[in-house]
Amino acid sequence: SALPPPRTRIFKIIVIGDSGVGKTCLTYRFCAGKFPEKTEATIGVDFRERLVEIDGEKIKIQLWDTAGQERFRKSMVQHYYRNVHAVVFVYDVTNAASFRSLPTWIEECKQHALGSEVPRILVGNKCDLQDCIQVDTDLAQQFADSQAMPLFETSAKNPNSHGDGNYHNSDHVEAIL
Ligand code: GDP
Ligand code: MG
Which superkingdom is the protein from (predicted)? Predict the structure, then answer.
Protein backbone atom coordinates (compact mmCIF):
# COMPACT_ATOMS: atom_id res chain seq x y z
CA SER A 1 0.00 0.00 0.00
CA ALA A 2 1.07 3.56 -0.59
CA LEU A 3 3.13 5.30 2.04
CA PRO A 4 1.47 8.22 3.73
CA PRO A 5 2.62 11.53 2.26
CA PRO A 6 5.63 12.94 4.14
CA ARG A 7 4.91 15.70 6.56
CA THR A 8 5.67 19.13 5.26
CA ARG A 9 8.80 20.40 6.88
CA ILE A 10 8.62 23.82 8.45
CA PHE A 11 11.46 26.28 8.28
CA LYS A 12 11.26 29.05 10.83
CA ILE A 13 13.05 32.20 9.74
CA ILE A 14 13.15 35.29 11.93
CA VAL A 15 13.24 38.77 10.45
CA ILE A 16 15.10 41.30 12.55
CA GLY A 17 15.98 44.98 12.36
CA ASP A 18 14.99 48.46 13.49
CA SER A 19 11.41 49.58 13.46
CA GLY A 20 10.43 51.03 10.07
CA VAL A 21 13.00 49.24 7.90
CA GLY A 22 10.26 47.24 6.18
CA LYS A 23 10.24 43.87 7.94
CA THR A 24 6.47 43.59 7.80
CA CYS A 25 6.34 44.68 4.17
CA LEU A 26 9.06 42.20 3.18
CA THR A 27 7.37 39.28 4.90
CA TYR A 28 4.04 40.30 3.38
CA ARG A 29 5.61 40.56 -0.07
CA PHE A 30 7.17 37.13 0.29
CA CYS A 31 4.04 35.42 1.58
CA ALA A 32 1.27 37.31 -0.21
CA GLY A 33 3.17 38.33 -3.36
CA LYS A 34 2.40 42.01 -3.06
CA PHE A 35 3.16 45.17 -1.14
CA PRO A 36 0.62 45.75 1.63
CA GLU A 37 -1.82 48.59 1.09
CA LYS A 38 -1.17 49.76 4.60
CA THR A 39 0.64 48.29 7.56
CA GLU A 40 -0.13 48.70 11.17
CA ALA A 41 2.83 48.63 13.52
CA THR A 42 3.38 45.00 14.37
CA ILE A 43 2.11 44.16 17.82
CA GLY A 44 4.18 41.56 19.57
CA VAL A 45 5.18 38.72 17.30
CA ASP A 46 3.47 37.78 14.12
CA PHE A 47 4.24 35.19 11.51
CA ARG A 48 3.32 34.58 7.90
CA GLU A 49 3.74 31.40 5.94
CA ARG A 50 4.32 30.36 2.38
CA LEU A 51 4.70 26.95 0.83
CA VAL A 52 7.66 26.66 -1.50
CA GLU A 53 8.96 23.71 -3.45
CA ILE A 54 12.68 23.10 -3.28
CA ASP A 55 14.28 20.12 -4.99
CA GLY A 56 10.84 18.57 -5.37
CA GLU A 57 9.99 18.83 -1.70
CA LYS A 58 7.26 21.10 -0.42
CA ILE A 59 8.53 23.18 2.47
CA LYS A 60 6.62 25.59 4.62
CA ILE A 61 8.52 28.80 5.17
CA GLN A 62 7.44 30.53 8.33
CA LEU A 63 8.63 34.12 8.53
CA TRP A 64 8.51 35.58 12.01
CA ASP A 65 8.11 39.29 12.22
CA THR A 66 8.41 41.39 15.36
CA ALA A 67 7.61 44.75 16.65
CA GLY A 68 10.70 46.74 17.45
CA GLN A 69 9.13 47.93 20.67
CA GLU A 70 11.04 46.69 23.66
CA ARG A 71 7.98 46.31 25.83
CA PHE A 72 6.55 43.70 23.47
CA ARG A 73 9.81 42.02 22.74
CA LYS A 74 10.81 41.33 26.33
CA SER A 75 7.93 38.98 27.04
CA MET A 76 8.03 37.27 23.65
CA VAL A 77 11.74 36.98 23.29
CA GLN A 78 12.19 33.35 24.38
CA HIS A 79 9.37 32.17 22.16
CA TYR A 80 10.72 34.10 19.23
CA TYR A 81 14.27 32.77 19.33
CA ARG A 82 13.31 29.12 19.80
CA ASN A 83 13.86 26.56 17.01
CA VAL A 84 15.10 29.05 14.46
CA HIS A 85 16.47 27.74 11.16
CA ALA A 86 17.72 31.03 9.75
CA VAL A 87 17.92 34.74 10.45
CA VAL A 88 17.27 37.67 8.12
CA PHE A 89 18.73 40.99 9.28
CA VAL A 90 17.11 43.98 7.62
CA TYR A 91 18.23 47.60 7.36
CA ASP A 92 16.80 50.46 5.32
CA VAL A 93 19.20 51.75 2.64
CA THR A 94 17.76 55.24 3.13
CA ASN A 95 18.39 55.22 6.88
CA ALA A 96 21.99 55.08 8.07
CA ALA A 97 20.92 54.62 11.69
CA SER A 98 19.18 51.37 10.81
CA PHE A 99 22.47 50.14 9.32
CA ARG A 100 24.42 51.20 12.41
CA SER A 101 22.01 49.18 14.57
CA LEU A 102 22.93 45.92 12.89
CA PRO A 103 25.76 44.95 15.27
CA THR A 104 23.35 45.21 18.20
CA TRP A 105 20.82 42.93 16.50
CA ILE A 106 23.53 40.49 15.49
CA GLU A 107 24.82 40.43 19.07
CA GLU A 108 21.35 39.82 20.47
CA CYS A 109 20.97 36.84 18.16
CA LYS A 110 24.33 35.48 19.25
CA GLN A 111 23.13 35.66 22.84
CA HIS A 112 20.30 33.37 21.82
CA ALA A 113 22.70 30.91 20.18
CA LEU A 114 22.07 32.27 16.69
CA GLY A 115 25.56 33.09 15.50
CA SER A 116 27.41 32.16 12.34
CA GLU A 117 26.54 28.46 12.72
CA VAL A 118 22.98 29.39 11.69
CA PRO A 119 22.33 30.59 8.12
CA ARG A 120 22.06 34.36 8.23
CA ILE A 121 21.54 36.91 5.49
CA LEU A 122 21.61 40.69 5.34
CA VAL A 123 18.91 42.57 3.47
CA GLY A 124 19.07 46.24 2.53
CA ASN A 125 15.47 47.27 1.86
CA LYS A 126 13.85 50.27 0.07
CA CYS A 127 16.18 50.26 -2.94
CA ASP A 128 13.34 51.80 -4.95
CA LEU A 129 14.19 55.10 -3.22
CA GLN A 130 17.34 55.58 -5.30
CA ASP A 131 17.54 59.33 -4.64
CA CYS A 132 17.68 58.89 -0.87
CA ILE A 133 20.38 56.27 -0.44
CA GLN A 134 22.36 56.69 2.77
CA VAL A 135 24.07 53.31 2.91
CA ASP A 136 26.09 52.53 -0.17
CA THR A 137 26.49 49.06 -1.50
CA ASP A 138 30.26 48.87 -0.95
CA LEU A 139 29.95 49.68 2.72
CA ALA A 140 27.11 47.21 3.18
CA GLN A 141 29.02 44.53 1.28
CA GLN A 142 32.09 45.08 3.45
CA PHE A 143 30.00 44.69 6.56
CA ALA A 144 28.25 41.61 5.19
CA ASP A 145 31.63 40.06 4.36
CA SER A 146 32.95 40.82 7.85
CA GLN A 147 29.97 38.93 9.27
CA ALA A 148 30.17 36.12 6.72
CA MET A 149 26.67 36.88 5.45
CA PRO A 150 25.42 37.29 1.90
CA LEU A 151 23.95 40.72 1.14
CA PHE A 152 20.75 41.31 -0.81
CA GLU A 153 19.67 44.82 -1.68
CA THR A 154 16.02 44.88 -2.56
CA SER A 155 12.69 46.63 -2.25
CA ALA A 156 9.53 45.22 -0.76
CA LYS A 157 7.64 47.91 -2.65
CA ASN A 158 9.06 47.37 -6.11
CA PRO A 159 11.31 44.34 -6.32
CA ASN A 160 12.09 45.01 -9.98
CA SER A 161 13.27 48.56 -9.41
CA HIS A 162 16.74 47.51 -8.44
CA GLY A 163 19.74 46.19 -10.30
CA ASP A 164 19.18 44.04 -13.34
CA GLY A 165 15.47 43.76 -12.78
CA ASN A 166 15.77 40.04 -12.30
CA TYR A 167 15.35 40.11 -8.59
CA HIS A 168 12.99 37.53 -7.11
CA ASN A 169 12.07 37.40 -3.47
CA SER A 170 12.38 33.63 -3.45
CA ASP A 171 16.11 34.04 -4.07
CA HIS A 172 16.40 35.08 -0.45
CA VAL A 173 14.93 31.90 0.81
CA GLU A 174 16.85 29.72 -1.59
CA ALA A 175 20.02 31.46 -0.50
CA ILE A 176 19.26 30.44 3.05
CA LEU A 177 18.22 26.85 2.56
P1 GDP B 1 8.78 47.39 10.03
O2 GDP B 1 8.59 48.29 11.22
O3 GDP B 1 10.23 47.01 9.89
O4 GDP B 1 7.87 46.21 10.03
O5 GDP B 1 8.46 48.28 8.74
P6 GDP B 1 7.12 48.26 7.83
O7 GDP B 1 7.10 47.05 6.98
O8 GDP B 1 5.95 48.53 8.68
O9 GDP B 1 7.43 49.51 6.89
C10 GDP B 1 7.68 50.79 7.44
C11 GDP B 1 7.38 51.85 6.40
O12 GDP B 1 8.27 51.72 5.29
C13 GDP B 1 5.97 51.76 5.82
O14 GDP B 1 5.49 53.06 5.61
C15 GDP B 1 6.16 51.06 4.49
O16 GDP B 1 5.19 51.42 3.55
C17 GDP B 1 7.54 51.56 4.08
N18 GDP B 1 8.27 50.58 3.26
C19 GDP B 1 8.51 49.29 3.56
N20 GDP B 1 9.23 48.69 2.58
C21 GDP B 1 9.44 49.64 1.65
C22 GDP B 1 10.14 49.65 0.38
O23 GDP B 1 10.70 48.66 -0.09
N24 GDP B 1 10.16 50.85 -0.29
C25 GDP B 1 9.55 51.96 0.19
N26 GDP B 1 9.64 53.07 -0.56
N27 GDP B 1 8.90 51.99 1.36
C28 GDP B 1 8.85 50.84 2.08
MG1 MG C 1 6.50 45.60 11.42
Answer: Eukaryota
